[in-house]
Automatic annotation (TrEMBL):
The lineage of its organism: Bacteria, Bacillati, Actinomycetota, Actinomycetes, Kitasatosporales. Residues 11-336 form the FAD-binding domain. It comes from Streptomyces thioluteus. GO terms for molecular function: monooxygenase activity. Keywords: FAD, Flavoprotein, Monooxygenase, Oxidoreductase. Its cofactor is FAD. Pfam families: FAD_binding_3, Rng_hyd_C. This is FAD-dependent monooxygenase. InterPro entries: FAD-bd, FAD/NAD-bd_sf, RIFMO-like.
Length: 503
């Protein structure tokens, strides 16, 4: 191995982990003008099947960066589940339902996007040490050309549930380890019936045949405890459990990928530790039921990226970075709670049947269905906007708006594509334009009008809306209300003092 580099590589933000969460964060940081270096142990995007579901809120965020269309036309399924009980995920908006995109494709897309924006993505680099001082962090990693030293203002751990950063720095990570687990495998050359969370006397079985002929199987034996694993299970273990539960033999098939995941549930006590932050599975560990884990991590990245970029560029309010912890830790706690309930419904034996029967009666009720669909999709996430949060939209994500900017059709999501904040003026009031002018270097004023009827979710009389870069509403008002109590305080809270453009 070559000798250690004599001169450290310097950057503003070091991202450890180049999976979907780390790459999403890298792109967001670059949109905000921050220098970013990504260190990833793997030499290329994952070829494993892993997570394959993008929920509606994640699809909206991708659309807000101009990325959704690059996925082509992936299958979209309105039907999801809650603990294996069918659940219709249909909600208002163009991104409703589950988008079926293999994780490798998502990672490939985000890798190309982050690089196109100027992110320095270094694959084949494995982190060994990370130290955090008062004014910088320093990392050492082994790469193809030897040891690389990276010095940065901040580091973000996006390196998964077995996070090296978390192991090195040992932040408090309360919760519990797995007590039960699901075995899963992608298998070629087998012919078994498709099963959607079929509960049999001995356990739970799932089978789904893909268009390419490969079948994903998942199996849990009721009462079986999770094993302590240092590697993936052997396919023979999966095949034996499948036969005991279903009576079918799949051992002659060809396993393409084998995996086990348990019902562990842990969350960092804090997502920010000085100059080191955590996102995705490095910050929270949960059973990946319904694809929520990947989506939670991608949404972490979009919440953090603009805040950290503003901080390193010197234009953030003093406490802006701390809002990442308060906002996303609360969301993560709620997701871990609903996943814990679903794990009990899925993996519990006969003792879970009464609760499953009760939920089976409640979920068809529209109010219950909408509540659960909003929670699983991420569409109902609402942040505390403080004193400016009196309007019904404040804290929520902007609902889908069809707009005319001049004579050009647009949408609320498209207004976010350049990064930065947006002050959307739906009545063309010069007073609103004047109030936004001092922040023109980081908040784009846009006059537009609705293209069609007022959509669900936009209260009558909403004439002006201040959007954070993540698409959440920081302030909203009527034109008269804006004249009396404009967006100035909200602009200061989220974008700093006017005219401080940073270095």
């Amino acid at each position: 191995m070559a000798a250690e580099n004599a001169t450290p590589l310097t950057t503003e933000v070091l991202v450890v982990g180049g999976g979907p969460v780390g790459l999403m964060l890298a792109g967001e940081l670059r949109l905000g003008g921050a220098e970013v270096t990504v260190l990833e142990r793997r030499t290329g995007p994952t070829t494993e099947s892993r997570a394959s579901t993008l929920h509606a809120r994640t699809a909206e965020l991708l659309d807000g960066r101009g990325l959704l269309g690059r996925l082509g036309d992936p299958p979209r399924e309105p039907r999801g589940h809650f603990g294996g009980i069918p659940l219709d995920l249909t909600l208002p908006g163009p991104c409703s339902g589950q988008w079926k995109v293999p994780q490798g494709r998502t990672e490939e897309l985000l890798d190309a996007w982050a690089r196109s924006l100027g992110a320095d993505v270094r694959r084949g680099h494995e982190l060994h040490t990370l130290t955090a001082g008062e004014d910088h962090v320093e990392a050492r990693a082994s790469g193809p050309d030897g040891t690389v030293v990276v010095r940065a203002a901040y580091a973000v751990a996006c390196d998964g549930e077995d996070s090296t950063v978390r192991r090195l720095l040992a932040p408090r990570f309360p919760g519990h380890d797995a007590g039960r687990e699901l075995l899963r495998a992608d298998v070629a050359g087998i012919d078994v019936p498709d099963r959607r969370f079929e509960r049999l006397p001995g356990g739970l079985a799932v089978a789904a045949r893909r268009p390419d002929g490969v079948t994903r199987v998942m199996v849990h034996e009721f009462g079986a405890a999770a094993r302590r694993r240092t590697a993936a299970p052997e396919f023979a273990e999966v095949a034996a459990a499948w036969e005991r539960v279903t009576g079918e033999r799949i051992g002659a098939g060809t396993p393409l990928w084998v995996n086990a995941f348990g019902d562990a549930s842990r969350q960092l006590a804090r997502y920010r530790h000085g100059r080191v932050l955590y996102a995705g599975d490095a910050a929270h560990r949960q059973m990946p039921i319904g694809g929520q884990a990947l989506n939670l991590g991608l949404q972490d990245a979009v919440n953090l990226g603009w805040k950290l970029a503003a901080t390193v560029r010197g234009r953030a309010p003093a406490d802006l970075l701390d809002t990442y912890d308060t906002e996303r830790r609360a969301v993560g706690l709620r997701v871990l709670g609903n996943i814990g309930i679903q794990a009990g419904l899925l993996l519990g034996g006969p003792e879970a049947d009464p609760l499953r029967a009760l939920l089976g009666e409640l979920i068809p009720l529209e109010e219950v269905r909408v509540h659960l669909a909003g929670m699983i999709s991420g569409l109902d996430v609402r942040y505390d906007m403080g004193p400016d949060g009196g309007h019904p939209l404040c804290g929520a994500r902007l609902p889908c708006l069809r707009l005319l900017v001049g004579d050009r059709p647009s949408t609320g999501f498209r207004l976010l594509r350049a990064g930065g904040g947006v002050l959307l003026d739906l009545v063309g009031d010069d007073r609103i334009r004047a109030q936004a002018a001092p922040w023109a270097d980081r908040v784009r004023y846009t006059a537009a009008r609705l293209d069609g009827p007022r959509p669900d979710g936009l209260p009558d009389g909403t004439d002006a809306v201040l959007l954070r870069p993540d698409g959440h509403v920081a302030w909203a008002a009527t034109a008269a209300g804006a004249a009396r109590n404009g967006p100035g305080e909200a602009l200061r809270r989220w974008f700093g003092e006017p005219g401080e453009a940073g270095a």
